[in-house]
Amino acid sequence: MAFKSKSVKRFSVRGFLAAILHPFMTSPTDAPGVFASSDSYNNVGDWHTLLLNNELSSQCELERMVCCKCTTNVEHEFLLLHFRHPTQHHAVAILVLDRTVRQESTENNNGNGSSRSVGIGQSTIVSPSVSATPAHDSIFTTPNNGSAIQSYLTNRYGQHKHLCNLDFSASARPSAMQVSVLLCVLRKHSPTYHLWQYQCYWYAYTVWEALKRLFPGYRETTLSEGRSRFCGQEVRKAESVEAVCELYRAEWARFENAAEERRRAKEEEVRRLRMEGLVEGRAQRQPEVDEERRQREEAERRANEERRQREEEKRKADAESRRADEERRQREEAEREYEAELNRMRARMAELERRAV
């Protein structure tokens, strides 16, 4: 029991410190489209363009997806996308993804009473006619703090609940760019909002199931029943997951090929500019290079001359030493001959003296 109490206390302290320090952790501003300094509302095509123009944004990873459902009126369904920053790992942004009807189309239809707008907070979720109308697939981004996203969800959707969570393992998280390519594929696959096929239920379901199939290695948790249901009854929707996955694979292959071509073109441009810079730099520095070469050659010439002089002096010194050695040898030889001659003369005189006696 004592061990258990100690463990709970340690966990509580850690959570308390995290709660205190979290407000002081600055939110990134270097990943537009994911981490925003102000509210940003884009269709999926514009969001894809934002990611294309910023490498950090495109590298943010989807670690959790939450399927949500309004609990009043049209029971609209939408998704929350939790993206983690690629370098500032403490930072997580929550983006809102949903499909609605394009507003101008509903205004045109309101005259015959075939569509209606249901007020939710300070905005509206539109209930369209049975006929196909242009769809609006959008991403909403807000500054990275809990109050901002909660305020937006309450104002736009009113009362809502979380139906299920999809948590991706660290090794299987799709990047923001991969998610944006999938959303663009869905947009091309079905650009219209049809009440019995391509409505918000179809959109949330297809995004959810396609990401599960394309990025296995996840944990799915059901929190509440009612997914793809209206007033408890299952809503008809098109079955598009397999087709969308195939379209995504082809589109992602094209995207990677285009990215590789852009990378190679950029590297080639860098090499070209570097070579042009080198050539231009060499031309500008040519007088300086020539002067440096002249000075180097002059220094080499002086060094060679000094070496030649040293060698000549050494040669003369060696010759003088040999001459002195030769003179000394000759003197010693002459002295030896002189001494020998004296010895011979002494010997003759001594012989003459003996004879005289």
Relevant terms:
357 residues; alpha+beta; two-stranded antiparallel sheet; 12 strands; disordered N terminus
Structural description of this entry:
The longest helix is centred in the C-terminal third of the chain and has 116 residues, at 241-356. The model is unreliable at 1-12, 17-24 and 105-124 (pLDDT under 50). Strands 1, 2, 3, 4, 7, 8, 9 and 10 form an 8-stranded antiparallel beta sheet that branches. Strands 5-6 form a two-stranded antiparallel sheet. The chain is 55% helix and 20% strand. It has 357 residues and is of the alpha+beta class. It has helices at 2-21, 44-52, 55-59, 103-109, 146-157, 176-189, 200-214, 241-356, and strands at residues 40-43, 61-70, 77-84, 92-101, 116-120, 123-127, 133-141, 160-168, 192-193, 218-222, 229-230, 233-234. The radius of gyration is 46 Å and the shape is rod-shaped.
SSE arrangement:
Elements: H1 2-21, E1 40-43, H2 44-52, H3 55-59, E2 61-70, E3 77-84, E4 92-101, H4 103-109, E5 116-120, E6 123-127, E7 133-141, H5 146-157, E8 160-168, H6 176-189, E9 192-193, H7 200-214, E10 218-222, E11 229-230, E12 233-234, H8 241-356
Antiparallel strand pairs: 1-7, 2-3, 2-8, 3-4, 4-7, 5-6, 7-9, 8-10, 11-12
Helix pairs in contact: 2-6, 6-7, 6-8, 7-8
Specify the number of helices: 8
* Helix content class: 55-70%
**Binned strand content:** 15-25%
Number of strands: 12
Main pleated sheet:
8 strands, antiparallel
Radius of gyration, in Å, reads 46 Å
Spans of 5+ residues with little confidence (pLDDT < 50)?
1-12, 17-24, 105-124
Question: What is the H/E order?
Answer: HEHHEEEHEEEHEHEHEEEH
The averaged pLDDT comes out at 83
